[in-house]
Amino acid sequence: MLFRKVEKRIEEYFASDSDKVLLVTGARQVGKSFIIRYCADKFFKHIVEINLIEDAENNGIFKRVRSLEDFYLSLAAFSSEPLGDFSDTLIFLDEIQEYPHLLTLLKFLREDRRYRYVASGSLLGVTLKKSNSIPLGSIDIINMYPLDFEEFMIANNIGQAVIDLLRESFHNLNTISEGIHDRIMDLYKRYLLVGGLPEAVNKYLGSHDLIQVRAIQQTISDLYKIDAAKYDKEHSLKIGRIYSLIPSNMENKKKRIIYKEIENIKGKRASDYEEEVEYLISSGTALGVSAISNPRFPLAETEHKNLIKLYFNDPGLLTAALYRANPAPVLLTECGINLGSVYECAVACQLAANENKLFYYDNRNRGEVDFLYDDYDSLSVVPIEVKSGKDYKRHVAITRFVSNPEYGIEQGYVLSNSRIVESDGKIHYVPIYFSLFFDNRLDKNGPILI
């Protein structure tokens, strides 16, 4: 079984006496249902799993449920198994976005305390954004992503001691030995090809056959488009077009969405595609990165939502779209292909998995920096530039950024293939895999007592 960091959070929830309903959101095929089942088996004697998409396609037992009585009668009709009580029985409502009325009912199910509840859905994030009747005080939400690079390393038998060494080297700005660096970089390049979708990772581990991995990735990309078509016929074609343009947008100088290219109509603006872009982000299908032109901590106070960059939610999907089944552009540096967009995608995915809201710097007079990071220890903004080539020390924009006294920048990072860790003023040059450690997960250091 693949190690997933989210397992700890779900198990802590099941082990607690919390009566809140846990909602696990994330894109299709990131492993939500599997990890819920795996964790639930450790804590509950009785587990009832209800896939509400299947219910809607078959007899619709839960379609017209509007009250507790309706729900319990439907539950009895669905499962003849004798159930226990709050302490030993879990009801798992999978694909709950299919029946938004059940989200409203969660408040009353929680208050009744007859059973424990967990829900998940591949488009749950979209439903949560659209609904005005979500019982926010009655739910806890966990956002789930494909495997990040740390999880990929563990899947490939990299031990915790090595990961701890990498973390220590990042914090102390130490250079990694050549042997360890070469091994980690080799895995990183394979991660760029395979990505972190669990089915693709398992296929890679079992066969090391890129063609089979690509077939899985193509199927998942197709499923994303099918989901968009179900969402809304008026918007589905534009959603699909925006999604398909992400790789080419990444090759543009600004890397932003070019709205006039979506329907080949001049004069189109961000406001014309706001719902489509929001769908891609809320569904977890794409990662949205908002512009900041005048950075201040915390960054959310100054974002510009009209200037958005989109990345695929998984680097393997991007390399599949760009290079199909040829691994040479990623594995062989002598090919001379610029992997800048691929590296940026991988860093965006890592930052998102580490629970960072994604921002970049865009100032008409001072240039652009790939990512901005809220450093909650120093209460300052940290710029991050991603480089894939040998000229990683050429970076006018980040130099201007850290030198601007108005921004109060203490340090910035340039991520690249280089093994050598070194500093030049406020700018630190570190290996690309150190992106692992820009981490704003609340529980990364355990409890904080006040």
Q: Which features would summarize this protein structure in a list?
A:
8-stranded mixed β-sheet; alpha/beta; 17 helices; 450 residues
Brief rundown of the structure:
α1 packs across α2, α10 runs antiparallel to α11 and α12 packs across α13. It is built from 17 helices and 13 strands.
Mean pLDDT, nearest integer? Answer: 92
Order of helices and strands: HEHEHHEHEHEHHHHHHHEEHHHEEEHEEE
The major pleated sheet works out as: 8 strands, mixed
Low-confidence stretches: none
SSE-based structural type: alpha/beta
C-alpha-based Rg, rounded: 23 Å
Number of beta strands: 13
Any overview of this molecule?
There is one protein chain. The chain is of the alpha/beta class. The protein has helices spanning 6-15, 32-40, 52-57, 68-78, 100-112, 124-130, 149-155, 160-172, 178-194, 198-207, 210-231, 233-250, 274-282, 315-323, 328-331, 340-353, 396-403; strands at 21-25, 46-51, 89-94, 116-121, 139-143, 286-292, 303-312, 359-363, 367-375, 380-386, 412-416, 422-424, 427-431. Helix content is 42%, strand content 18%. An eight-stranded mixed β-sheet has the order 7-6-8-9-10-11-13-12. It has a five-stranded parallel β-sheet with strand order 2-3-4-1-5, with helices on both faces. The chain is globular. The chain starts with 5 loop residues before the first helix and ends in a 19-residue tail after the last strand. The mean pLDDT is 92.
